[in-house]
C-alpha cells in the first residue's frame, strides 16, 4: 500500500514546531485561522496581512515539513494580483500557495512563474453560503471530477478535496496523477488533513469529518484554575519560584 500523505494546519510558532517535530508531510497555514484563532465568523473576513503574519510565524518553527500559505479571499482575483500576492507569501518562507476553486488562468500564471500551487475543490469556504457536502448528484460530481482533471493537467502540486462523497474522491484520486488530500472526503484520497485546533479540542467546530484526539481546552482550564487558586491561597510564588 502506498504511504498516505499527512497534512495538518498550524497558525503560530509553538504549534508549528510541535507538528513539524511529530513529522508530517505538509503544514497548511489555512485561512481557517480566521475562525480558529482570530474569532471571525468565517474565512471571508481574514486579510492578506493577517495571513502573511501567521504564515511567517509558522515558517519560523518549521524545519522539515513543506509549508503551504493559504491565499485569502480577494487576494487572487486576477492573474496579476494573484502573482503579486503569491510572491508576498513566498517572502514568508512558505513553499507553496493554496487557492480555492477552479481558476485556470490564475493557476497557469503562478505555475509559469515557478510558484507551486495547491488546489482546493469541493466545499469552498471562501465562497460558500452554507457548509454542506458537495458533488452529491451526478452533474455536480462530474463537474468537480472534470475540474480536478484540468487542474492536474495544468501541473498543480496537490489537490485538497473538502466535503465530497468518498466514492467521488476515490474516482478523482484514481483519475489524476496529482496527490489528493481529503478532509471529509473518505479513506481513498492520497492523504488526509484536519484542522489542528479541531483535533486537539481547542475549537467549537464539530463536523462529522472531525475526530478529536485531545482536550486542550480542559488542559488550559485546569492550568489556569490551579494557578488562580494557588495565588488566591498564597501558595504561589513559593520559595522554589522566588529569588
Ligand atoms: O483553511 C484551512 O484550514 C483549509 C483546510 C480545511 C483544508 O483550507
Summarize the structure.
With 243 residues, the chain is of the alpha/beta class. The chain is built from nine helices and eight strands. It has helices spanning 13-22, 33-36, 48-61, 79-91, 104-112, 138-154, 166-175, 196-199, 216-232; strands at 5-9, 26-29, 66-70, 96-98, 117-122, 158-162, 180-183, 191-194.
List keywords for this structure.
8-stranded parallel beta barrel; binds 3-methyl-2-oxobutanoic acid; TIM Barrel; alpha/beta; single chain; 243 residues
Provide an overview of this structure.
This protein has 243 residues and is α/β, with parallel strands linked by helices. It has two domains: 5-212, TIM Barrel (Alpha-Beta Barrel); 215-243, no CATH class. Helices cover 40% and strands 15% of the residues. It contains nine helices and eight strands. It has helices at 13-22, 33-36, 48-61, 79-91, 104-112, 138-154, 166-175, 196-199, 216-232, and strands at 5-9, 26-29, 66-70, 96-98, 117-122, 158-162, 180-183, 191-194. An eight-stranded parallel β-barrel has the order 1-2-3-4-5-6-7-8, surrounded by six helices. Helix 1 links the parallel strand 1 (5-9) and strand 2. Helix 1 (13-22) packs across helix 3 (48-61), helix 3 packs parallel to helix 4 (79-91) and helix 6 packs parallel to helix 7. The structure holds 3-methyl-2-oxobutanoic acid. The site of 3-methyl-2-oxobutanoic acid has 11 residues, from strand 6.
